[in-house]
Design a protein that fits this description.
Blueprint (H helix, E strand, L loop, with lengths): L24 E6 L10 H12 L3 H12 L10 H5 L4 E7 L2 E10 L3 E2 L2 E2 L1 H20 L11 H14 L10 E5 L6 H16 L3 E4 L8 H12 L7 E5 L1 H4 L10 E4 L3 H11 L2 E4 L4 H14 L11 E5 L4 H15 L8 E4 L2 H22 L13 H4 L6 H5 L9 H20 L1 H10 L2 E3 L3 H16 L13 E3 L2
Parallel strand pairs: 6-7, 6-10, 7-8, 8-9, 10-11, 11-12, 13-14
Antiparallel strand pairs: 1-3, 2-3, 4-5
Amino acid sequence: MKTEFTKEEESRSAEMPPLLATTDTVSAHLYPRGGLDILSRDEVARLRDASASGMHELLKRCALAVLTTGSTSDDPRAAAEIFKSFNIQVTQQDRGLRIDLTDAPAGAFVDGDIIRGVAELVYAVVRDLAYAATDLGADSRRDLTTSHGLTDSVFDILRNARALVPVDPNLIVCWGGHSISREEYIYTKQVGYELGLRGLDICTGCGPGAMKGPMKGATIAHAKQRKHRPRYIGLTEPGIIAAESPNPIVNQLVILPDIEKRLEAFVRMAHGIIVFPGGVGTAEEILYLLGILTREENKDISFPLVFTGPADSASYFEKIDQFIRLTLGEEATKHYKIIVDNPIEVAKYMKAGVRQVRESRIANKDSFFFNWSLDIPLDLQKPFAPTHENMASLDLHFGREASALASDLRRAFSGIVAGNVKEEGLREIEKHGPFKIHGDPKMMEALDDLLRSFVAQRRMKISGEYQPCYEVVR
């Protein structure tokens, strides 16, 4: 039995509306709430100084992304080209902060007033970027060269954003692509609906496609179950937010400083993870998690992981499964379950898995809201710069430990993501040409075959005709 949803217009680039319905602009003053409304003069001054320093352009880019919430373009430069005169300033007042928006997209306003949900996302941008600048900067007391220090920084960012809630385990992280078919999008909503009926909250990468679908399905189920204060958490990072503008359902947005901290936040917060069809970003997430779960230190950690999609997507997971078996070995496959075309079974499996997580956390005296017991190696935590030199030097050969090989494979996919949709990656490709990826010939053949399937299925990019930013050297 399946839950039927109406057709969605945002499932493929050819079927999607333009980036924005209007290029009109509005200027406004915002007075933040939710952690930014009760601040000392010193705290306000620090936030103002951080926003006015070298991070101002970053603040503008992230703020413009949330002001175009619901955008279906994955071109990180598109909104900035349309709204060239947009600006944001943080002003100090005795009553707290004032955020001044100049020539902001009119689509974020109704009758001259900013939409409340959009305003909350703007506050989240200021909060998280300023926190990273003031508390995680050069003068930070944390040692960000150690695994312990990096994990503490992720915890502090999430706590500062009020994303850590001491309630019974119920948070399901959903991964998947922003460029998916209509059938796949509807399926993600069906799964979200079944999760919502079982009282489970949703966390995604906050964008469109498989990041929006589960949230949208869950909203209907949560309404039916009269669930109060459902959580739809979106975790993003500055490099990707312009290409994956937050979807309108997100009610808690957190911006982590980089992809590595974003990935760690996902797995530390999750009580279970569902993977829907996607592209290189989804492959990166899978390899990151398997790089953790295949470690001996984590053999007793309860962590439900499901790969799922509609019947037409069965071949997608067959290819992913084949690639994992070839590179990481058969042992890695025991950490996930593939369920095809059955939203109810997925939800039941996750609900049962969450109960096991609860029992395990109690037995190990670990918190419900942040998985401290999970051992994440420093190799997976250190930020990876997607340069041509770094991409060419990845050690992609057989004979390595599964977790170590997964780490370098994760970096390879991360570099391709950067070359596809991140500004720094786009500049690198424009300047030096495609990344060159080297490794064992058999492994490179499998990698090339997987990437070609992503291109053929239009999973790489929504906007424009895709031009590969990489070259697999066999």
